[in-house]
Amino acid sequence: MQNHPSYPVLSQLLEKYPATGGALFQVYNDLTLAQKWIDVEVIDLPACKRAAIKGKRPTPDTDRAPSICIVVPCSLSESISASWLRAAFTSLDPLPSEIYVAITSEDTSTVYYKISQGIVKPPV
Amino acid sequence: MTQPILLRVSNFKAYVWDVDDINILRSHHHICGILTGTLPHLSSQNIFLGLPLQLMPEEAVLLVENGIAVLVDDPSAHYAPSPSTLRLWKEARLNDARQQIALTEEKGSIEASNPDRAMSENAKRKRKEREERRARAKTNAAPSAPVEDSPSPHPTSENPSQAAIGEPLDSTVVMPSGSYTVNIPASSSKLEWYAPHSNVSLTIAREAGIWLHPSTLQERARCGVFRDLWEKGYYMGGGIKFGGEYLVYPGDPLRYHSHFVASVIEAPDAALRPMEIVAHGRLGTGTKKAHLLCEWNDETQVVSYLSVEWAGFG
């Protein structure tokens, strides 16, 4: 892992949160290499005892600028809670309207779910 | 001030037996319940059901807490009628039967006086054939055995209604022979010997031992979440079709699709497995709904919501 091109960016937070390092490493690589996100940076999220990832998600619509998204990685085998999800929101500044939870499994499959605070109607 | 609606409780479940009450609950209070009544002679009834309307416990709790309805222990609301009351009831029943028989006879005599009325040529021909067949069968069977005198195994009674059911013989009221329909009312409201005692609060109903909901944290959480969504104007239905506690509709479920599937989380720190987010999120998005994680805080009695959708990538 130390020889991986992503390692220098992540090393500090990987050392700070070793328990969630695997998920962070996997999601960071997925976003930068597979999803082709740009301006990706890592942010510390002490309330969730892990690092989160902030970046611009490219849209197929070229007229619109890529939107800034925040991704909180977690492993499929972790146990989280509603208060954990809320803590992710409240510890971010400015308070985002939505966050993405990236769930990773051991075979490197990664899925992303959008979590919004409050009752948010689905798109028609 | 209108009278509170009576919720008839049986085995800790609340039922509504009056069609007008069902209408009021649905149109004024956006409480839908589900119709559960079936008819004994129709098989495979699973789409169109009738009275009674069964309420979710959360619905009943909300209606009682808001003073819209009261709980009634239906079995103990009936007392033994006095002989005079019972005689009046039987006389009414007798009059109804006589009226029905008179109407049937009147109709029969009209039809007898004009037998060809409303019969097509085809029907007449078929009837003639049937009558001929019957006549032939009779002449063939006649010489074989003299069945006429053998005693019938079931002595036919002049009064089948009295003989059949173990009704106490009452010389003052004898039901007429002939066929008529026995009407059994859905609710007991009109019976003289029905005196429902209203349990106006959940505490009183709990002390009376007829209603215990909500008694656990999970039940309190469900009632709290249901009330909060109801106060926001949503209509709720059972959520089993989409793996949640409730389906949340923006208006009457007969007019709208639900926008959300709601699941109730008992406490802020209750364990939530990431797999639940995946399962709920993906199913909801696949059915054009969002999933609501409804988090109950038992200390503050506050509900917080998180909406889950598939991100659209990954």
Automatic annotation (TrEMBL), chain A:
GO biological process entries: tRNA splicing, via endonucleolytic cleavage and ligation
MF terms in GO: endonuclease activity; nucleic acid binding
Pfam families: Sen15
SUPFAM superfamilies membership: tRNA-intron endonuclease catalytic domain-like
One GO cellular component term noted in the UniProt record for this chain: nucleus
Coiled coil ranges: none
Domain tRNA-splicing endonuclease subunit Sen15: 26-122
Keyword terms of this UniProt record: Endonuclease, Hydrolase, Nuclease, tRNA processing
Family: Belongs to the SEN15 family.
Protein name: tRNA intron endonuclease
Organism (species): Suillus fuscotomentosus
TrEMBL record, chain B:
Keywords: Endonuclease, Hydrolase, Lyase, Nuclease, tRNA processing
Keyword Ribosomal protein: no
Record-annotated tRNA intron endonuclease catalytic domain positions: 222-302
Catalytic residue list: Y249, H257, K289
Membrane-crossing segments per the record: none
Coiled-coil region list: none
One Gene Ontology CC term in the entry: tRNA-intron endonuclease complex
Ranges of Basic and acidic residues composition bias in the record: 118-134
Any Pfam family: tRNA_int_endo
CDD domains, per the entry: tRNA-intron_lyase_C (cd22363)
EC number: 4.6.1.16
Top-level lineage group: Eukaryota
InterPro entries, sorted: tRNA_endonuc-like_dom_sf (IPR011856), tRNA_intron_Endo_cat-like_sf (IPR036167), tRNA_intron_Endonuc_cat-like (IPR006677), TSEN34 (IPR016690), TSEN34_N (IPR059049)
Disordered as annotated region, ranges: 104-165
Domain TSEN34 N-terminal, first and last residues per copy: 7-74
Keyword Mitochondrion set for record: no
Family: Belongs to the tRNA-intron endonuclease family.
Function: Constitutes one of the two catalytic subunit of the tRNA-splicing endonuclease complex, a complex responsible for identification and cleavage of the splice sites in pre-tRNA. It cleaves pre-tRNA at the 5'- and 3'-splice sites to release the intron. The products are an intron and two tRNA half-molecules bearing 2',3'-cyclic phosphate and 5'-OH termini. There are no conserved sequences at the splice sites, but the intron is invariably located at the same site in the gene, placing the splice sites an invariant distance from the constant structural features of the tRNA body.
Protein's name according to its UniProt entry: tRNA-splicing endonuclease subunit Sen34
Organism: Suillus fuscotomentosus
Taxonomic lineage: Eukaryota, Fungi, Dikarya, Basidiomycota, Agaricomycotina
